C-alpha cells in the first residue's frame, strides 16, 4: 500500500514536518509494509520556509531537482529593531529536469508571460520571518507604525544571491503598510506633497502623494524587457482573497489582529486609500478591488503594482514547490492530510481540503488527522475527506489543551494508526 502524507502545521505544537513524521510512524504501526511518502505542506503563510527545508533535512531532493540551502539575513523588524530572518535558496541540480519545467509552466500560467523562465535558483521567503507578528507586541501604536521593510531586505538578499524566482509567503504579517516598507528596501521612495519621505507604517501612508521608483532594483521592475536575462519574478502566495479597501479590506479585517482599535482602523484605511491612489497613478492597470490585494496588510498591492510580482493561491505555489502534484501523479492508495483545527475556514479551501480535492481528481481517497474537529458530516464529505479523527479520540485527557500540545506528536501518531486501521477495515467515521 502506498500512502502519501501531506499535513500542514499543527499551530502551537507541531511543524508540518514534525506532524508528517508522527503520521508516518502511525502508518507504519498499522501497516508495517506500507510505502510512505511524506510531503509537509503549507498554505503559503507561516511555515513555508520549514516546508522548503523539510525535504532537504530528510535527504530528499525537493521536487526531484533542487537542493535547499538555509540562509539567514539580518533585517529591520516591523518596529525598527534588527533581528535574524531565515529564508531558503533552492538550486537546481538539473535545469532541464521535470520540476524546473513545471515551474516554467506554473509562472507562465500565473502571470501570462510566454517566454522561458530561468528556475536554476529559487528563493523561498516569509513575511512572518522578517515582518511578522512574532516581532511585535500588538497594540494601537504598533498597528500604525509596523512596516514591511525587512521583507524587502529578504527579497533584495535573494536577488543578490542569484534567485530568479522568489516565492513569498505572506501570512502572519504585523503590518498594514501596503507593502510600502518592502518597496523602500528595494529602492523606491514614498513621498508626501512636498517631496519628502513619509514615515514608515500604515499611518505614514496618510501623507503619501507619489511613489518614486527610479532607484528600484532593475531586475524587479514591472515593465522589465522580456529580452533581458537578469529579471527576477516574485510569486506571492496567499490563501485569502480580500480587496485592499473597504469592509472586507486589509485594515478592517486584519488590523485588529495587530492591536488596532476603531480609531486606528480608520487611520489605516485612510492611509491605504492614499496608497491605492498613488499606485493607480503609477500603474493604470492596478485595481485595489482585486482579490488578494488586502492580504497581509495590503502587502501584495505595492509589489504587484510596481514590481514583476503576481499573487497565486498559496497551496498552488506550495504544490509546485515541493512536488506534491508529482507525488499524486506517481500514484497512491491513500492521502492523509492534517492541521491543528478542521473548521469552516478549512472547508473554504485551506490546505487539507485543497490537497484532498487534488487527490480526488485522480481517484485517491483522503482522510484527515486534526487537533480539533468542528465540521459536519456532509460538509466533510463534500470537501473530499472521507474520514477524520481528532486528537481527543486518542488522548488520555481529552479536552486538556496543554496536554494535547505537550503530547501532540504522540497523539498524532496514535490517531493516524487508528485512522489507517479504520480505512483498511472499510469503516468510515466522518466528523
Characterise the protein shown here.
The chain is an alpha/beta fold. Helix content is 39%, strand content 19%. It contains 17 helices and 13 strands. The protein has helices at residues 16-30, 48-57, 98-111, 127-131, 140-145, 149-160, 180-185, 250-254, 262-282, 295-306, 314-322, 324-330, 344-347, 351-360, 377-382, 401-406, 408-425, and strands at residues 2-7, 35-38, 66-76, 82-92, 121-126, 165-169, 189-191, 210-212, 233-238, 309-313, 334-342, 366-373, 387-390. A 6-stranded mixed sheet has the order 3-4-5-6-9-10, with helices on both faces. It has a 5-stranded parallel sheet with strand order 2-1-11-12-13, sandwiched between helices. The chain has a two-stranded antiparallel sheet with strand order 7-8. Helix 1 packs across helix 17 (408-425) and helix 9 (262-282) packs parallel to helix 10 (295-306). The radius of gyration is 22 Å and the shape is globular. The chain starts with a strand and ends in a 6-residue tail after the last helix. The model is unreliable at 58-63 (pLDDT under 50). Belongs to the glycerate kinase type-1 family. Keywords: Kinase, Transferase. Residues 96-116 are annotated as: Disordered.
Low-confidence stretches: 58-63
Strand order of the largest sheet: 3-4-5-6-9-10
What's the total helix number? 17
Specify the helix fraction band. Answer: 25-40%
What is the radius of gyration computed over CA atoms, rounded to a whole number of angstroms?
Answer: 22 Å
Strand content: 15-25%
Alpha-beta content class: alpha/beta
Kindly report the average pLDDT value. 88
Q: Can you count the beta strands?
A: 13
Reading the helices and strands in chain order gives: EHEHEEHEHHHEHEEEHHHEHHEHHEHEHH
Amino acid at each position: 500500500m502506498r500512502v502519501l502524507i501531506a499535513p500542514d502545521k499543527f499551530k502551537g505544537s507541531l511543524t508540518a514536518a514534525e506532524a508528517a513524521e508522527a503520521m508516518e510512524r502511525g502508518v507504519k504501526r498499522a501497516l508495517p509494509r506500507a510505502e510512505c511518502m511524506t510531503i509537509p505542506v503549507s498554505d503559503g503563510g507561516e511555515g513555508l520556509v520549514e516546508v522548503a527545508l523539510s525535504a532537504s533535512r530528510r535527504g530528499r531532493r525537493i521536487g526531484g531537482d533542487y537542493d535547499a540551502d538555509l540562509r539567514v539575513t539580518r533585517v529591520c523588524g516591523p518596529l525598527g529593531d534588527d533581528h535574524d530572518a531565515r529564508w531558503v535558496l533552492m538550486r537546481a541540480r538539473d535545469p532541464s529536469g521535470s520540476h524546473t519545467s513545471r515551474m516554467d509552466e506554473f509562472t507562465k500560467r500565473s502571470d501570462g508571460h510566454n517566454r522561458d523562465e530561468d528556475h536554476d535558483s529559487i528563493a523561498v521567503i516569509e513575511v512572518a520571518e522578517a515582518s511578522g507578528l512574532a516581532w511585535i507586541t500588538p497594540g494601537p501604536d504598533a498597528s500604525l507604525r509596523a512596516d514591511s521593510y525587512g521583507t524587502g531586505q529578504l527579497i533584495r538578499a535573494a536577488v543578490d544571491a542569484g534567485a530568479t524566482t522568489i516565492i513569498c509567503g505572506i501570512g502572519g504579517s504585523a503590518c498594514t503598510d501596503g507593502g510600502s516598507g518592502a518597496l523602500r528596501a528595494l529602492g523606491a521612495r514614498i513621498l508626501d506633497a512636498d517631496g519628502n519621505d513619509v514615515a514608515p507604517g500604515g499611518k505614514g501612508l496618510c501623507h503619501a502623494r507619489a511613489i518614486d521608483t527610479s532607484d528600484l532594483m532593475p531586475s524587479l521592475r514591472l515593465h522589465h524587457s522580456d529580452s533581458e536575462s537578469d529579471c527576477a519574478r516574485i510569486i506571492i502566495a496567499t490563501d485569502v482573497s480580500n480587496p485592499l479597501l473597504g469592509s472586507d479590506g486589509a485594515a478592517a479585517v486584519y488590523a485588529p489582529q495587530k492591536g488596532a482599535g476603531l480609531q486606528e482602523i480608520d487611520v489605516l484605511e485612510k492611509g491605504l486609500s492614499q496608497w491605492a491612489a498613488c499606485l493607480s497613478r503609477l500603474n493604470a492597470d492596478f485595481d485595489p478591488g482585486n482579490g488578494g490585494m488586502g492580504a497581509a496588510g495590503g502587502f501584495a498591492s505595492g509589489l504587484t503594482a510596481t514590481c514583476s510580482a503576481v499573487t497565486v493561491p498559496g497551496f498552488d505555489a506550495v504544490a509546485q514547490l515541493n512536488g506534491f502534484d508529482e507525488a499524486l501523479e506517481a500514484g497512491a492508495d491513500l492521502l492523509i492530510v492534517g492541521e491543528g483545527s478542521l473548521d469552516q475556514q478549512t472547508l473554504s479551501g485551506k490546505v487539507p481540503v485543497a490537497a484532498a480535492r487534488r487527490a480526488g481528481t485522480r481517484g485517491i481517497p483522503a482522510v484527515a488527522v486534526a487537533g480539533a474537529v468542528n465540521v459536519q458530516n456532509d460538509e466533510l464529505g463534500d470537501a473530499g475527506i472521507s474520514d477524520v479523527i481528532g486528537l481527543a479520540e486518542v488522548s488520555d485527557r481529552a479536552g486538556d489543551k496543554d496536554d494535547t500540545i505537550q503530547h501532540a506528536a504522540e497523539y498524532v501518531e496514535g490517531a493516524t494508526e487508528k485512522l489507517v486501521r479504520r480505512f483498511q477495515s472499510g469503516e468510515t467515521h466522518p466528523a
